[in-house]
Amino acid sequence: MIKFLYKIPNDIIVACSGGPDSMAVIDFLRNGRKRVTVAHFDHGTPHGVDARKFVVEYCKSKDIPLIVGEIQRERLPEESLEEYWRNERIRFFHNHAPQEIITAHNLDDVVEWWMFTSLHGNPKLTPYRNKNIIRPFLITPKSNLVSWCERKNVPFLVDPSNFNVRFSRSRIRNNLLPEALKINPGLRTVIRKKIERGI
Question: Which of 18, 26, 59, 149 gives 51 a disulfide partner, CB atoms 3.0 to 4.6 angstroms apart?
């Protein structure tokens, strides 16, 4: 089941990478008769070429309005590649303020971020809002979004960088999280309850 926090506007922009999370959210909202515009950010990577083509073709086939953003500057020396992509993507989304943009961040993303920040000595939960960016699906497990795509025949792409442990989030997702779940199989439930309590 896909659950969301707070009321979602009828006219909304949805950030879409082409992955199962965002593709499920788009289909879920359109099923709920929301008027969706898609915002896709091209990270300028080899996968980005495929993702952009995929999202453009999908939106065209479904008659969904589409906005595409791109990298606008060189990476700063102090930025990791992950930070660079994230900062440019957020800049693109913030440029559409005050229009709210939904991202498909889910419970698994929150757990990974909590683990990442904990390892840096300052555990944090992913916030519901960042200016005009809202994240209504923080209490929905990723598996529920993948299941939606499979049941509803919603196409999606998988970014190969998700498995590249060069990136911190991928290392946590593929190596650390499975071990943490062996120690505490209820870790997702613990984090979900923290989100629901607003901690």
Answer: 18
Per DSSP bridges, beta strands 133-134 and 129-130 are: antiparallel
> What are 133-184's pLDDT values in tens digits?
999 999 999 999 999 999 999 999 987 776 666 777 788 888 999 999 999 9
Distances (CA, A) of 16 to 58, 97, 165, 168, 184: 11, 17, 23, 22, 32
Coil, helix or strand at residue 1? coil
CB 156 within 8 A of CB 18: yes
Q: pTM here?
A: 0.91
Q: Which CATH superfamily is domain 11-108+126-162 in?
A: HUPs (3.40.50.620)
Q: What are phi and psi of 134, to 5 degrees?
A: -120, 150
Domain ranges (residues) in the chain: 11-108+126-162
Residue 110 pLDDT exceeds 60: yes
